């Protein structure tokens, strides 16, 4: 069997002790330091006292707890403790040193600065605690579909505890429950992100499946983040229902505010009140054209007596209605243009020469009667 070269062992040990994060101290059975190496002596605050030949009590006079730990090593115990020096967090291992006959000849302490590792662990712990208090579920799976992380505040909703799914193959466990799971996972394994929805019990979930990479950047599984969207979907449906009601109410108001009145066997009248926006104009046009076709009307009277104001957009809608009436073979008549409205229309430069305008609705009715076949 091959053996390790003692020189190589020494080289490895020397390199370890030259690290800023490592310290090795040894004592003999008489509690005298026989070894004190490592750049960690300074951060631990014992560089000036922990020297070879110093007594254990003198070396660690300001750290009596370490003296007791060394003595426990001399009694044959192995002890591991965690200690903070300044801003650093150290992991200290104490163990006995034995001679060839097995008798204890001393004790040693190996101290390693694990601040960076501890920070990572603490961050992971805080992240886990945060996730487990959020209304979401987080999973991580390897390329085989085996779950490696299972956390989240919503796990209880599906009867699970944090970590309970670790080691479970999600394809085997959930393919029947989540029909699109395999496709979403397969896409993530290829580097794509997918969002799927599925029902679990009485709840509706949305799950985002993202690609997972290893340290070399290769695809190494998938992350899944699921949230309960049951209430959100209900709220959306409620909002859509409310919007439909509002729209129906607006249309009803438009119809009521602009009724199409049959004022003769071949004449219709539409009294306009208020402003004329695009939606209202479309509703009036649709209803008026339907009525003209159904009643076979020859005249359509648009009475502007109740119109508050006219802007370029309102005038454009009005001209469009009149043009559509003409396309059906009926004659459009404008009545009730008050002086302020006439002035605004003139200032806007609207060409009203082709419009048939009369002073009042009564004048329009008289005109329609006189223009009807058989009237003298």
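-> sequence recovered:
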């Amino acid at each position: 069997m091959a053996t390790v070269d003692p020189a190589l062992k020494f080289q490895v040990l020397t390199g370890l002790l030259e690290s800023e994060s490592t310290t090795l101290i040894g004592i003999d059975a008489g509690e005298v330091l026989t070894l004190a190496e490592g750049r960690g002596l300074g951060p631990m605050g014992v560089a000036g006292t922990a020297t070879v030949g110093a007594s254990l009590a003198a070396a660690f006079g300001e750290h009596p707890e370490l003296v007791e730990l060394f003595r426990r090593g001399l009694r044959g115990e192995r002890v591991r403790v965690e200690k903070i020096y300044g801003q650093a967090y150290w992991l200290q291992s104490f163990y006995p040193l034995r001679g060839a006959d097995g008798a204890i000849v001393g004790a040693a302490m190996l101290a390693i600065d694990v601040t960076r590792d501890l920070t990572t662990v603490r961050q992971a712990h805080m992240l886990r605690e945060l996730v487990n208090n959020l209304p979401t579920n987080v999973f991580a799976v390897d390329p085989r579909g085996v779950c490696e992380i299972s956390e989240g505040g919503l796990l209880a909703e599906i009867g699970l505890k944090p970590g309970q799914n670790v080691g479970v193959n999600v394809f085997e466990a959930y393919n029947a429950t989540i029909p699109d799971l395999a496709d979403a996972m397969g896409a993530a394994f290829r580097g794509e992100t997918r969002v799927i929805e599925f029902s679990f019990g009485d709840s509706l979930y949305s799950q985002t499946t993202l690609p997972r990479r290893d340290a070399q950047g290769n695809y190494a599984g998938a992350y899944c983040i699921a949230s309960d969207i049951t209430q959100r979907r209900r709220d959306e449906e409620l909002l859509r229902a409310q919007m439909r009601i509002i729209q129906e109410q607006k249309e009803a108001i438009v119809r009521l505010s602009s009724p199409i009145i049959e004022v003769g066997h071949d004449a219709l009248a539409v009294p306009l009140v208020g402003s004329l926006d695009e939606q209202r104009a479309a509703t009036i046009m649709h209803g008026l054209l339907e009525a003209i076709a159904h009643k076979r009307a020859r005249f359509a009277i648009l009475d502007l007596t109740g119109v508050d104001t006219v802007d370029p957009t309102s005038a454009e809608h009005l001209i469009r209605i009149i043009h559509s009436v003409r396309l059906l073979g009926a004659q459009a008549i404008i009545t009730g243009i008050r002086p302020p409205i006439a002035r605004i229309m003139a200032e806007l430069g609207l060409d009203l020469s082709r419009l048939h305008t009369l002073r009042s609705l009564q004048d329009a009715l008289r005109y329609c009667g006189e223009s009807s076949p058989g009237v003298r």
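The first strand starts at residue 22 and ends at 28.
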